[in-house]
Amino acid sequence: MQVLIPFHKIIQGCLMRKRFCSFPFSVRLGVLKTALLTGLFAVTGSASLVFASDSDDYAVIRAAAEKGKAASIARLKEWIALPSIAAEDLNMPEGAEYMRKLALDAGFDAAEVVPTEGHPGVWATMDNGAERTLAVYFMYDVKQYDPAEWSSPPLAGKIIDKPGFGKAMVGRGAVNQKGPQAMLLAGLHAMKEAGVKPPVNLVLVAEGEEEIGSPHFKQIVSRPDIMAKLKESEGIFIPIGWQDDKGNVGVNLGAKGIVELELVASGESWGRGPEKDIHSSLKAMVDSPAWRLVQALQTLVTSDGNTPAIDGWFENVRPLTEREKELIGQAAASSDEATRKKLLGVQHWIDDLPYQQALERLASQPTVNIEGLVAGYTGPGGKTILPGRAVAKMDLRLVPNQTRAEAEAKLRAHLDERGFKDVEMKIGGGYDPTETAEDSRIIQAEMATYRRAGVNATLNPRLAGSWPGAMFTAPPLSLPAGQFGIGHGSGAHAPDEYFVVESTNPKVAGAVDAAMAFVDFFYQVAEIE
Amino acid sequence: MQVLIPFHKIIQGCLMRKRFCSFPFSVRLGVLKTALLTGLFAVTGSASLVFASDSDDYAVIRAAAEKGKAASIARLKEWIALPSIAAEDLNMPEGAEYMRKLALDAGFDAAEVVPTEGHPGVWATMDNGAERTLAVYFMYDVKQYDPAEWSSPPLAGKIIDKPGFGKAMVGRGAVNQKGPQAMLLAGLHAMKEAGVKPPVNLVLVAEGEEEIGSPHFKQIVSRPDIMAKLKESEGIFIPIGWQDDKGNVGVNLGAKGIVELELVASGESWGRGPEKDIHSSLKAMVDSPAWRLVQALQTLVTSDGNTPAIDGWFENVRPLTEREKELIGQAAASSDEATRKKLLGVQHWIDDLPYQQALERLASQPTVNIEGLVAGYTGPGGKTILPGRAVAKMDLRLVPNQTRAEAEAKLRAHLDERGFKDVEMKIGGGYDPTETAEDSRIIQAEMATYRRAGVNATLNPRLAGSWPGAMFTAPPLSLPAGQFGIGHGSGAHAPDEYFVVESTNPKVAGAVDAAMAFVDFFYQVAEIE
Fold first, then answer.
1. Which residues, other chains included, contact A110 with Cβ-Cβ below 8 Å and sequence gap of 6+?
2. Who has the most CB within 10 Å: A382, B337, B342, B405?
3. Side-chain half-sphere exposure of A509, counting CA atoms within 13 A
4. Distance CA A292, CA A477 (A)
5. Which of B8, B278, B283 to mutate to test the interface with A (most CBs of A within 10 A)?
6. Structural domains counted in chain A
7. B405 shares its domain with B504
8. In this model, does residue B30 exceed pLDDT 80?
9. Which residues from B are below 8 Å from A287, CB to CB?
10. Could you tell me how many CB contacts below 8 A there are between chain A and chain B?
11. Is B294 in contact with A294 (Cβ distance < 8 A)?
């Protein structure tokens, strides 16, 4: 998911979940072993370990999952070895075709590559003659990587020891999102092997441009037959594996929207300053696009850099509801602020806010962020040039009821109003904020599955990150949408990204439990009121 | 010279010289050939072709220069093959030792490597029993380069055709400054071969840190015996080869000073924001060092980015003198503004100034320039991070009577006053502005040599670029200092830097004429009143 720079974000996720942890966990290994036939984890104090599915079926499926474990881990390793990176136009048709085959192998009746004006997606269906249909969202692309920064080759899928967790596979895409997706496929392989049909019909929609902001994903879901099938579903979810070391997970009821863009000041567009870099001594008689960019940028936020100052930016911002504040209040009260600060390398929140207010700000406030600055000479030391071009890489995070289109239009108008018509906005991608109701069947099924597995799941009113959920939650689809899964990985977008395949932590799922959680989730969606 | 991004700057130089071009040039090749024995160029209309030196000696020296031409070109090629780059700590002791040997080979009696706290310099002396001593400044370092941007390998010294000029050697350092320096050495080799002692004593001081702002050069010139010898001299000069296609040159009476520095905002120094890059979604609760930098930067200049707004910046700025304005007025009147704009890729000067005012601004105004911006993610596309660190690479050009120390102190005070104590100033190097009197013996000798060679030389009140001339012109040395030489090269700091070794342009010197110009300059310095 583009949402996550895994390392930091997952830390954030872990800590957010940690602070929701409200009931005591005490796991004994003996109990766990026994429990493996009936539940994902046996947790003393957990009242509901009865499966929605027929327990014989479930035991057979679990046995198949155990048997298929090595194949499932090999499947993930092979997938990691084929990186599709839209930003680099790397292995895009290959990645789509691979995704299609993965779906067919896992038991989908039909799977096809869906062309777009950008890179293709994949659409797959599995009609199990069930009453309900569940939709799954996959991404087959991964983030760029620099092998020099990795401890082992990013495409090798090396298995390493991850103290506190167990054995983990290291590779680009391991947690974002091939690992969790491979676990869902493993669950389907196990059902196929066991000869048990999933209790829901499944449809799978995959894209290869998630890491560049899903610029053509709408073309995929808008295809009439795809849209019709999606509309029939109970909702859609992304497989995740974000348990923290206590086994906790969060259930997000929504996420911020985002616009990723470059603001570019250049002599070419401005008609002032040089078209290309010239010698810096000429600054005394020639205008500077770099200063132009700085001057345009500083109008976008308050002087502390923390609040958007773009004209009309807050017009449609909806304040937190009482329920949202309540959930955040619980979070603040039960979590360890000092540890979170330490892990983030942050000494103060904005305005020295107390933690609860900082978390309210995190959930409720739109942001205007500088991801990167690039102008002129960027190497070691200096070089006496007056750059012809300067770029700020930005992301704008949006909250309900802002929209991406509104944000783009308002930023343009703001710049124009101040005479910065020449400062170009190069939109990379983005999506609207997304929200899913707490009482939707998919959220309720998630909570039930976690509960039955003894996993502490806490409701998070809004992910401060972003994912293209609005594609599903907004009209015309208007579907509930969420993330679901157990297991653990980290390092999305960072070096040494990993996903745990053998857990030595009784509270964290390994490959088989992670796969079985998806199986149980299917039953929950099928059977929940 | 750090002064020059050759391509643009030399273009600028060419044009500046062109506009001074006031008397008709008409050169016939037959005349030129004949003239080679008595002068550098025979120019009809030039009244003084009588040499200060004995003409027999001169003919013998010239014959030796012709004979040594191939060796002189080979010497340049070999020197280019050994790049010394202080910023990369590349071949620094090797470059100094090579410089030392070059001096000895050319006839210096003594030459030694002079250690500093940084990279070493070289000091060489040649006592010719003459009344007067002339000091020469060399740099043995070159600017960084990226071979991928070059048409031929930057260390290969390939000879190519340069239409309008002749055959040129392509290589890093070709014009900045190894080519012109090699021509001076060639002149000395010719005198040695001819058995003629230079009519002046020579001292040579070389450094290897010119391209990083000469941070340790003062340690070299401050050595008591070196300072004593330099003080005895008539003045000091840098060899150059900046003739334009009409053969014109400029004589600079001074140059701006410079401070090169990085301004760095970071979570580490600020105590706010993250220590390292974190996920951009956290912007809603975490401060941003990148915004911090933008806010600090925008206080440094007026809103158009063109005038320094640092507290007290103009306190010691001396306005142009009437004589300086007069020289600039002549320049503006006689030059081709449209061509210059086109070559620079600039449509308007600052404030749409007319050319003369733009040139006055160029000569008279201090600048605060952004050389480069670097923060967070700088690759293709975007990456959703909140960077822990942001850097602006800056250069501040200074005019008389500003000083580097004053500029550094005022910038620090300005930032502190506005609460930006955390924004670090990492000084790369710099030097004070420099001025040399028009009536100094060295400037008069330059003008006389150019005149006798039929080269149109025009007085430029102040180079907008910078060179460490103040090291010489300011106390305790208080020497006149200038640039001198003919020949042509371009592309300093840029790909495909070159220096003409065989001229097919009768107005531009090739290797032999360039060498002989230095020989004649020695005579002028020896004999001028």
1. A124, A125
2. A382
3. 30
4. 43
5. B283
6. 2
7. no
8. no
9. 304-306, 348, 350
10. 330
11. yes
Contact: A350, B285; criterion CB under 8 Å? yes
Of the residues A409, A431, A453, the one at which a domain ends:
A431
- For residue B418, what are the domain limits? 256-317+366-429
> For tokens 């004053």, what's the residue?
B406
Interchain CB distance below 8 Å, B464 and A385: no
Contact in structure between A125 and A109 (CB atoms under 8 Å): yes
Q: Which chain B residue's Cα is nearest to A467?
A: B281
In this structure, are A161 and A37 located in the same domain? yes
Chain B residue with CA closest to A300: the answer is B291
Residue ending a domain, among A431, A454, A485, is A431
In a domain, A229, yes or no: yes
Report whether A255 contacts A433 (CB < 8 A): yes
pTM assigned to the model: 0.78
* β strands within B291-433, DSSP E: 367-376, 385-386, 389-398, 424-431
A50 has a pLDDT exceeding 50: no
**Closest CB to B375 among A359, A370, A386:** A370
Interface test with A, best of B328, B357, B370, B466 (most A CBs within 10 A): B370
Nearest to B362 among A258, A284, A359 (CB): A284
In a domain, A333, yes or no: no
The reply to whether A243 and A374 lie within a common domain is no
Q: Supply the ipTM of this predicted assembly.
A: 0.79
Q: What is the CATH number of the domain that holds A414?
A: 3.30.70.360
Strand pairing report for B434-435 and B236-239: unpaired
**Residue owning tokens 């109003």:** A417
**Which H or E run contains B387?**
none
A324 assigned to some structural domain:
no
- Sign for the CA dihedral angle at A451, A454, A459, A464 comes to negative
**pLDDT tens for each residue of B444-478:** 999 999 999 999 998 999 989 887 788 899 999 99
B-chain residues near A280 (CB < 8 A): 5, 367, 369, 371, 395, 397
**B96 and B64, same structural domain?**
yes
Q: Which among A258, A279, A292 is the nearest to B305, CB-wise?
A: A292
Q: What is the DSSP letter of B41?
A: -
Residue A525 has pLDDT above 80, yes or no: yes
- Whether residue A326 lies inside any domain: the answer is no
Q: Do B280 and A5 touch (CB under 8 A)?
A: yes
Show residues of chain B in contact with A8, CB under 8 Å. Answer: 277-279, 282
Range in A193-197, A215-219, A404-408, A466-470 with the lowest mean pLDDT: A466-470
Contacts of B212 in chain A (CB under 8 A): 381-382
Look at B304 and A298 and tell me if their CB atoms are within 8 Å: no
d(CA B178, CA A173): 51
pLDDT in tens, B175-189: 999 999 999 999 999
Is the predicted pLDDT of residue B45 greater than 60, yes or no? no
CB nearest to B464's CB, from A9, A284, A493: A284
The one-letter amino acid code at B220 reads I
CATH classification at residue B496: 3.40.630.10
**Interface contact flag, A370 B384, Cβ < 8 Å:** no
**Quick check: B367 and A4 CB within 8 A?**
no
- The residue ranges of DSSP E strands in B271-381, in sequence order, are 278-279, 367-376
Q: Which residues of A touch B282 (CB under 8 A)?
A: 8, 12, 344, 362, 464
Query: How many percent of chain B have pLDDT more than 70?
Result: 90
Burial level of A189, CB count in 10 A (0-12/13-18/19+)? buried
Residue B65's identity, in one-letter code, is A
Whole-number Cα distances in Å, B73 to B89, B169, B183, B486: 27, 9, 9, 16
Of A305, A365, A466, the CB nearest to B287: A305
pLDDT digits (tens, 9 = 90+) for A188-242: 999 999 999 999 999 999 999 998 878 899 999 999 999 999 999 999 999 999 9
